Amino acid sequence: MKKTKIIQILIILILLSAALYGLWPFSLSENETGSLEVIALDSRQDLRTLRLNFPLDPLLTDGLKVYFLVERKYLDSIQEAGYVFTIETGCFQHKGEKSLRPQAEGTGGLNGAYHSYRELASELKSLATSYPTLARLYVPGQSLENRNIYALKISDNPGLSEDEPGIALLGGHHAREWISVEVPLLIGRYLLENYSREDRVRALVNSAEVWIIPMVNPDGLEYSILNYRLWRKNRRLNQDGSYGVDLNRNYSYEWAYDDIGSSPEPSSAVFRGTGPFSEPETEAIRKLFQNQRISAAISYHSFSQLILYPWGYLDQPTEDEALLQSLAQEMAGLISQVNGRVYQTGRAATSLYLTNGDFADWAYGFFRIPAFTIELPPVDLVQGGFLNSESDIEPIFRENLPAALYLIEWAIASYVSKGARAFPLLRRELEKKHEIMIKDRAGAAFKGKESR
Ligand SMILES: [Zn+2]
């Protein structure tokens, strides 16, 4: 075994024992996530068949055991299918926020170098104030718990809507994917700080409108800092008493296409909500896209080291497969040159798993723009899964920077040659047609749900 691997496993074991003794912000409060359990399985069992048969949310592994989040109602069936597991929910509970606070003071808050909602808000405001000729802060909407969804616009004349392509860099759809907040934020900061000294940055900021939306799910993120580190969804109180809608299953394009790529069950980790854009957080993103001329987008997530492009809902190529593939490969090449890390590229449905109602399918489906999901490091659960360290932030940002700059430059070059005026017309027509279809499907889904 390599030395680095031993160290990684040791770190995970230390974190797990810290969680056991309540030193780490893990909790699964009985009334809020009562239908979920954390189970651990010996990694020598055939977990692939297990994952094909049951809806499991893989959390982390120490090499010997794999930890999954699963709905309690499946426990009997998993046992009947011959799998041996232990229930580990208790070790993900902490003994209250109080014990966590003192050690966190002065170290950037409970989540260390990662941004809480408040820290992000203050940093975005300070960037907008420091660079008034290059940046302006917008709030296209608010979360369920009334936090702002921030969108920092970076361009020359940021107060004007110029005839320039927009590029959207989004993060934090999923609460526990803290690194996905940092990457778009740092890219935005880089553009502002280097405008006056780098010709390349100046040219690109002058010819584009870059939208940085680092925290699509602020309520979930705060919950993952204060209560349950591995929380994923937003904080919607669902009809059955469970919490959360998966925001990256709540967009309208082919919403609820099937029950594999998203779930009609409120307690599921991939619950798609009661209708497309039922959540104010996704509605804010929709509003931004409807009012701006966005020509390309990257939605950052973690983990897996992947660059994914549509479709996610169906394993079929889009009309633009060749273009999307070549952009993804170009970005992966640029990324690997920085720290040597390899990001695989591919169609979302083939490379990861089926998803319906996600951001990238919607952005491509309605606006016909290149839209990518980038799954940031680590590459797998053994390397830490969702749990990046603080020292990961800088290198992961550094390796993603050239890929983002490349996509912005591509958007600028193709915008001029394509002419942008056709976009708004096309998308309104598409969206109208599609919403009628989706409404029918939502009606049907609800009828089905009542009989469950
Ligand atoms: Zn994610």
Any overview of this molecule?
This protein has helices at residues 3-20, 47-53, 75-80, 101-104, 117-130, 179-194, 199-207, 218-226, 280-291, 321-339, 348-351, 359-367, 393-418, 422-450, and strands at residues 36-42, 56-61, 65-71, 85-87, 135-142, 148-154, 166-170, 209-213, 294-302, 306-309, 344-347, 371-376. By secondary structure, the chain is of the alpha/beta class. It folds into two domains: 3-102, Alpha-Beta Plaits, CATH 3.30.70; 117-435, Aminopeptidase, CATH 3.40.630.10. The strands form two sheets. An eight-stranded mixed sheet has the order 5-6-8-7-9-12-10-11. A four-stranded antiparallel sheet has the order 2-3-1-4, with no helix packed on it. Strand 2 (56-61) and strand 3 (65-71) form a beta hairpin. Helix 6 crosses helix 13. It starts with a helix and ends with a helix. Residues 17-33, 93-107, 419-426 and 444-452 have low confidence and may be disordered. Bound molecules: zinc ion (ZN). Residues 173-174, 177, 301 line the site of zinc ion.
